[in-house]
Design a protein that fits this description.
binds flavin-adenine dinucleotide, mainly alpha, Rossmann fold, 3 domains, single chain, Serine Threonine Protein Phosphatase 5, Tetratricopeptide repeat, 5-stranded parallel beta sheet, 6% strand, DNA Cyclobutane Dipyrimidine Photolyase, subunit A, domain 3
Length: 476
């Protein structure tokens, strides 16, 4: 009987798992493997909270495999050497895994593993667990091509969950890597959401049954968004549920409701689409992990005020709506979309700090942090990747309160110093003689100063009719 190693990565589930399903179809001895990579654990964008959540997902996968008669083997080290060495150790004939292009490092590692295995005469088979196309330039992320591809892939049948798996030889060493301390990481004081495949399915059911009707109108309101969005982000990040499963359940639900309820579901679907579209773009433009899509913006002399950056990270900018958001992010690892956007524009436009610094802090705190979504959103809110009329969307951290937190509940919850302050004084406490952090900058003035630098670049870009910049952005 042949032996296949199934290498789990950001696909910590048993349902709709192409690599596992293919191995099961071969009637082989199957050995599930997970490797902790020092590169990812020590990356400046890594965060103990997110890794704690991942450990929870691994625990759930381990239990689910045990129920089927199998056993998850964990190791730590350079994946490019551990995978081939492990395959040799267990006498594998093949290693199967799902592609993951979230970082250029992952793609490079995949190539190195495949090469090393082929030199050893061991088959390497990769699968596509996401609704993405192979990297192939602009055509693959042009909406007219990507959109039909996305729907086509997500309409394909969900791959079955195995009902039993072969036993794993107990002599194969499984390194006990169960806690942050085992991984050499500091503890986290973040509130970690429940992890695992079962929880992901529960969240989906809950969203479709009770939250979806409130979805669209809650997106811009801090308290409502916390209650009515799906919270599936961290599960999509670690693959405890597949996009296909979500998509197909969504289509069924859409046939059951009409009118505004259906529009909410369409709104949700469009956000799932943008998630994958960002991933498709990053797969083709891996340099955007660190560089601006429009590279000309990386030559701007951005501010280097470390004190401003520290104050922003710690929620001490003097603007309570920004401060409450940053403190919520730091503590819970989650923030509604509108507040992520507000904090991003405050960082890039008001404080004129480069988007890469803000993205690094977000990535280190968000449990759902995903390079593709996070870095494209940061670039978009910094105005370094956009075209068209939404180029510079600058949120007002004072007036914004009227819509985002009309009665001040969110601010009071996170900025306890202001718990007793009247609602009408909460947005700009310095105007009312309230003892609080003084505002780091004047919003109106800072916005004008920033746009004075950025707008002319935008105008030059537009008058060049996109061509030169776009070619540069695509690396042509
Ligand atoms: C500066 C900034 C950084 C962000 N960083 C991330 C990130 O690292 N990871 C992340 O998942 N989302 C990110 N978002 C997008 C969005 O804020 C979150 O996806 C959403 O708030 C997560 O909550 P939820 O899981 O309840 O999402 P829901 O609103 O229930 O949406 C379901 C899923 O759709 C996707 N999605 C939702 N909104 C967007 C969007 N605007 N663009 C792309 N995909 C979307 C996510 O996968 C999300 O989990 C960011 C937004 C901004 C403005």
């Amino acid at each position: 009987m042949s032996t296949i190693v199934v290498w789990f990565r950001r696909d910590l589930r048993l349902s709709d798992h192409p690599a596992l399903a293919a191995a099961v179809a071969e009637d082989a001895q199957i050995i599930p493997l997970f490797i902790f990579a020092p590169y990812l654990l020590r990356h400046p964008e890594a965060g103990s909270g997110r890794i704690q959540f991942m450990l929870g997902c691994l625990e759930s996968l381990r239990n689910n495999l045990r129920v089927l008669g199998s056993h998850l083997i964990c190791r730590m080290g350079e994946q490019s050497s551990i995978v081939p060495a492990f395959a040799r150790e267990v006498g594998a004939t093949a290693v199967y895994w799902n592609c993951d292009s979230e970082r250029a490092w992952r793609t490079d590692t995949d190539n190195q593993v495949a090469e090393a295995l082929s030199e050893m005469g061991i088959m390497a088979r990769t699968f596509e667990a996401e609704a993405l196309m192979k990297a192939g330039g602009r055509e693959t992320y042009a909406l007219e091509n990507f959109t039909p591809h996305w729907h086509r892939i997500l309409n394909q049948p969900v791959m079955p969950r195995p009902s039993a798996l072969p036993e794993v030889d107990h002599r194969i060493q499984d390194v006990p890597l169960r806690t942050l301390a085992d991984l050499g990481l500091l503890p986290t004081d973040q509130e970690i959401p429940t992890a695992g495949e079962r929880e992901a399915h529960r969240l989906l059911c809950e969203f479709l049954a009770t939250k979806a009707p409130h979805y669209m109108k809650s997106l811009s309101v801090a308290e409502a968004a916390s209650r009515y969005t799906s919270r599936l982000g961290s599960h999509l990040k670690f693959g405890t549920i597949s996009m296909r499963t979500i998509y197909q359940r969504l289509q069924i639900r859409k046939t059951e409701v009409g009118g505004w309820e259906k529009r909410n579901l369409e709104g949700f679907q469009s956000r799932l689409f943008w998630r994958d579209h960002f991933s498709q773009k990053l797969r083709n433009l891996p340099r955007c992990e660190t560089e601006s899509y429009l590279q000309v913006f990386d030559t701007v002399r951005w501010s280097n005020r470390d004190d401003h950056y520290e104050a922003w990270c710690n929620g001490q900018t003097g603007y309570p709506l920004v401060d409450a958001s940053m403190r919520c992010l730091n503590r819970t690892g989650w923030l509604p979309f509108r507040l992520r956007a507000l904090c991003a524009t405050f960082h890039c436009i008001d404080l004129f700090l480069p988007w890469q610094m803000g993205a690094r802090h977000f990535m280190s705190k968000l449990i759902d942090a995903d390079v593709a979504i996070d870095h494209w959103q940061w670039q978009s809110h910094a105005g370094v990747s956009n075209t068209g009329r939404t180029w510079f969307r600058v949120y007002n951290p004072i007036d914004g309160m009227a819509k985002i937190d009309p009665d001040g509940t969110f601010i009071r919850r996170w900025v306890s110093e202001l718990a007793e302050v009247r609602t009408e004084h909460l947005a700009a406490p310095w105007k009312h003689g309230i003892d609080y952090f003084p505002p780091l900058v004047d919003h109106g003035e800072a916005r004008c100063q920033a746009l004075l630098v950025l707008e002319p670049i935008k105008s030059r870009y537009e008058s060049a009719k996109l061509s030169k910049f776009e070619k540069q952005a695509d690396g042509k």
